[in-house]
Amino acid sequence: MSDHSKFLSLVLRHRPEAAGVVLDREGWASVDALLAGCAAHGRPITREELEHLVATSDKQRLAFSADGQRIRANQGHSVDVELGLRPIEPPPVLFHGTVARFLPSIRGDGLLRGARTHVHLSADVETAERVAARRGAPVIVRVDAAAMARDGFPFFCSANGVWLTEAVPPRYLTIP
User: Fold this and answer.
1) Model confidence at 1, in pLDDT bands (50, 70, 90)?
2) Separation between Cα atoms, residue 85 and residue 103, nearest integer Å
3) Burial letters for 73-107: b for 16+ Cβ neighbours within 10 Å, e otherwise?
4) Which residues have C-beta within 8 Å of that of residue 73, sequence separation ≥ 6?
5) What does 2-43 look like in DSSP terms, one character per residue?
6) What is the pLDDT of residues 63-93, one digit of tens each?
7) What's the CA gap between 117 and 133, in Å, rounded?
8) pTM of the entire structure?
9) Yes or no: is domain 93-174 CATH 3.20.170.30?
């Protein structure tokens, strides 16, 4: 991930004040304000560079509004935003990539959102492995999403295909 990408993710997911921008209730920031804020905080980026970064990011963490005047993170916020996602039926099984040092906590407490607004899940093992590989040797936890949905747990799918839910109790997990 490039320095620009890391900084933009920080600003649009966790600390908008790091670039002097304000996120609206749905997590959107003015593109002009973001570019000005980045420059004012020693991280200049052009509109063209921003567009290229959003278009070519393999994880598609950021998105422009339909009119191109606003930008937001697709998910992963630790600031309070309402992304406007509607609950939908998940695939029968979802996956969570982690590393071995977190398994004791996951076995005891399940998957918790921590500082984020949701637990992030993947529709396929390969994506979960890529996510976990950032922290070490990946361990893939299977989530019985069908059973969770039957039991009333809501699921959401962000614009970039990341599945979201508030928590996953241990009884729905298959942990290696």
Assistant:
1) low
2) 29
3) bbbbbebebebebeeeebbebbbbbbeeeeeeebe
4) 9, 12, 13, 27, 61, 62, 63
5) -HHHHHHHHHHHT-GGGGT----TTS-EEHHHHHHHHHHTT-
6) 899 999 999 988 777 777 777 779 999 999 9
7) 22
8) 0.69
9) yes
Strand partners, 99: 138
The reply to whether 93-174 shares the fold of 3-73 is no
Give 13-22 contacts, CB < 8 A, sequence gap 24+: 13/61, 13/73, 13/76, 13/77, 13/78, 13/79, 14/77, 14/78, 14/79, 15/79, 16/79, 19/43
Please state, in angstroms and as integers, the Cα–Cα distance from residue 69 to each residue in 47, 110, 168, following that order: 11, 39, 36
Q: Where are the chain's structural domains?
A: 3-73, 93-174
CATH number belonging to domain 3-73? 1.10.10.970
pLDDT in tens, 13-32: 889 999 999 999 888 999 99
